[in-house]
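Researcher: Here's the sequence for the chain we discussed earlier.
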Amino acid sequence: MHASMTASLSLLVLLVLSGCGPGGAEQGASGASEGPWLFCAVPERDFGTVWESSLLTHTFEFEVRGSEPLVVAGVHQDCGCTAADLTVLGAGGPTPLEFERPLAPGTRLALSVEYATRGRRGPSPREVQIFCNEPDGVASVRLLADIRPWLTIEPDGPTLFRVALGEEFTTSFRVSGTTGEPFRLRHTGLGVPPEITVTPVAATGESAPDGRAVAWDVQVHVAPELTRGRHAFPLLLETDVPNPATPAGTPFGIQGQLGLQVEGRYGVQPAFLDFGVVGAAETVSRTVRVVRNAAVEPGVTLQAPEARLEALAAPAASDAARSANEGSMALLETAHVTVRSVDTADGVPAWDVSVLLDGLAEPVPARFVARLVLATGDPDEALLTIPISGARR
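Model: Thanks. This is the structure I predict for it:
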């Protein structure tokens, strides 16, 4: 009994000396001195509360322990906001680590980590992993930070605005400081085309005589020349107050997001019709919704668009091209198109256009394409085209 207690105590002492707990020193040491592992005295760095946009830096030191060489396969960060650099520490200073090169026991390593906190809020831990041949296969370190915004933006989060092609559009949002300290605010202009104008204006009753304010209304103007399509623009705003936790005291700033869907006088959803794989005996239908985006002039009565299918003919320079054209024409013979008016919640004129394929067979090609053409009767946008594709089983 006494011998058993002595053995148990010896095992406990061995585990304490060779392993580490949750806040301990050695990572991957599975209770034995055989094999390699990485020892890190302090594998966690807690920065406490920091301002958003601060650049947090720290260097973790490791030592190779065990009875065999350690091989590092790579380093992984859990976020693009984090950068890590692993070097070997020697008498002549740090040198770059060569992955897959064996490191003898006693070799010392340094892992330098940078954490850019722009766009982060609240508790935001980050982890960096070193993949190696220690028992656990990986050694990890962590950066802890509770990130506090110096600026806030309302409304927060991305918003997609639908804009009619050729029309002006304006919107605004508010940027406020969280410390009560007045500041100037400017738009950097980065990543924004000339059709977008961003103008910060001191909020009513919030400005000081020197041109600073604790809150700003940011006015955004979109010129009618902006092209059709979906656009996403970052709105980078910068104060005149330096953040001491950044290189060279970079000013505090914040980024808004402007999402625009610039459509013609009519919008079509979805933008194309994909029928997938259609069997010979199947009846398959697809529908697009056509919405009038532009305002309807007084006294004008809108007519439902006239719909038709058109084959996409290839130049008939070969037998294969002529066969494909014949197949496209055969597709039209099996298709039926209907148009019906739709009552929308906001009263905007809209129509559902349905294309029904009934009984595909040869000579419809194995992969078929066509297009749906809608004649609106509007001289400013007379025709809308929607691509059609699919395959015959």
